[in-house]
Every structure is written in C-alpha cells, then in structure tokens.
Specification:
Largest sheet: 6 strands, mixed
CATH topology of the largest domain: Mannose-Binding Protein A, Chain A
Helix content: 25-40%
Radius of gyration: 43 Å
Distance between the termini: 134 Å
Mean pLDDT: 82
Number of strands: 10
Number of domains: 2
Shape: rod-shaped
Number of helices: 5
Order of helices and strands: HEHEEEHEHEEEEHE
Structural class: alpha+beta
C-alpha cells in the first residue's frame, strides 16, 4: 500500500514537473517571440529612416544638379545687350578721305545695317579748326556692347579712363570678328591703326599740325592721328586705343605703311 502511494506521488510530481517545464518553455518561447517582434519593428523603423535619408539625399542631389541648369536658363532669359560698338570690317579705301564726318558716319551706318542693326551710328572722329568737333561728344552716352554682347564701356568717362576692354580680343567688327594684328601670329602684318584724329581724352587737337587729313577730306597731303585697336605697339602692351601716333601722309598707301587700312570705330548714339 505504501509503495503504491509512493509510486502515485512520484508520478504526480513528474507530471507537475513536466507541466512546469512546459510552462517555462512556453514563457521562454513567448519572450523569444516578443524579442523577435521588437527586433522586427526596430528593423522596419531603421529601414523607414534609411528610406527617408535616401529620399532626402536624392532630393538634395537633384537640387544641386538643378541649380546650374536654373542658372543657365536664367542667363538665357536675360537678353544680351544690343551691339553698340564695332570696328569697321573694311575701310573706305581712299586714304584719309572719308567724305568728311558725314561720309564716315554713313560707312558705320551701312555696315551696321548690313548685319541687322537699325540703331543710329556715328564714327569716333574729331575735326580741327573753326567749329572743331570732339569725338567723345558725338557717340552718345553709352553703354556700348560689342557684337558678342560684352560691355566695352558704360559712359563716355569710363570709355576714356577705364577702358581695359578695348583690346584685340574684344574690339570686334560688326560681324563679331577680330581684325588682323601681330598678336595673331604674323609679325609683319597688322591693320590695328584705327583713324580717330583725336587726343587721348577724346577731344580734338588744336589748330596747327594736321591730325585729321584736312578734316577727313584729303587722300594726299596731311596726317591722321590713329589709335591702336589691339593696344599693342609692336610687342609692347598698353598703347592707347584712340591716340597712338600720326600717319606719314593721307594716301591709302601711307595708312597701310604704318599698320592701317583706314578702319574706324563706330558707336551707336541711341
């Protein structure tokens, strides 16, 4: 009887132990499942944050790459300044005889009209003697842009005292081309002498020695004051653009002999 009781007690204890172990296993399994659930939630949150970071980075990258495009489009929307200055692509071919100021102005106007400009154009020229005309007083107030839209000068004063843009690179003709200069490789050929008849401040020379080929009517006797359109005197930079030296005479050959072709500076006055 005692043995049977002892056996039953042992069996009950074994079942209780098994139940306790099952309970512990279930508890452990629940804890494991809870941990896995928390890990999964954390992973999903990190993935969501990473996606946000990726999206933000992509947006920032798009903005960075868009800025130059926006800038270019903005620049394209800004209309380039209309041409207001050029060096004539050709001279009249009759030495210092330009037909006076009127003939020189007509030459500027004709060349400008040929490339589609309907502005009013005059030549940068002075005259001497009674009723002398200053070149600076006949070219309008500015600003003046070259054929490529580069501002050459903003006012008459800056034209004569802050004229760093007056050089071979930017002093273009009406077609946007450069004139022949020793700078471009030929040491023996240049047409950089531009007729002006003008002092360095843009005013006329006093009566006396001829500086204007008899006010731009002579193709023989006299002399013409010229400037260097490329700002070079042989190989030395810094030569004045509007008043460098005189010519040995007023024939076409005289102009060519010292590096010219009877070219003019033309300015829009409106």
């Amino acid at each position: 009887m005692a043995n049977q009781l002892s056996t039953k007690v042992g069996s009950i204890q074994e079942k209780v132990g098994r139940i306790i172990r099952l309970h512990e296993d279930a508890k452990s399994q629940n804890l494991k499942l809870q941990q896995e659930k928390e890990d999964l939630a954390k992973m999903l949150e990190e993935r969501k944050m990473n996606n946000k970071r990726t999206l933000i980075a992509a947006m920032l990258t798009a903005v960075v790459f868009a800025i130059p495009t926006i800038t270019i489009l903005a620049q394209q929307d800004e209309e380039a300044p209309e041409m207001g200055f050029f060096v004539t692509s050709t001279g009249l071919g009759d030495g210092g005889n330009l037909g006076g100021l009127a003939g020189a102005d007509a030459h500027c106007q004709s060349l400008a009209n040929a490339v589609g400009s309907n502005r009013a154009w005059t030549a940068y020229l002075s005259t001497q003697g009674s009723g002398a005309v200053n070149a600076k007083d006949r070219i309008g107030p500015g600003p003046w842009a070259n054929a490529n839209g580069l501002i050459m000068a903003t006012t008459v004063e800056s034209l004569h005292y802050d004229n760093s843009n007056f050089n071979w690179e930017f002093a273009l003709d009406e077609n946007g081309s450069q004139f022949a200069s020793r700078i471009d490789g030929d040491p023996d050929f240049t047409v950089h002498d531009i007729l002006t008849g003008t002092q360095i401040d843009g005013t006329a020379f006093p009566t006396g020695q001829d500086q204007t080929c008899n006010n731009w009517t002579s193709n023989n006797a006299g002399s013409a004051r010229v400037g260097h359109g490329d700002r070079y005197n042989f190989t030395t930079p810094g030569s004045p653009w509007n008043s460098s030296h005189g010519t040995p005479g007023c024939t076409q050959e005289n102009l060519v002999s010292v590096g010219g072709a009877g070219l003019l500076y033309c300015f829009a006055t409106d």
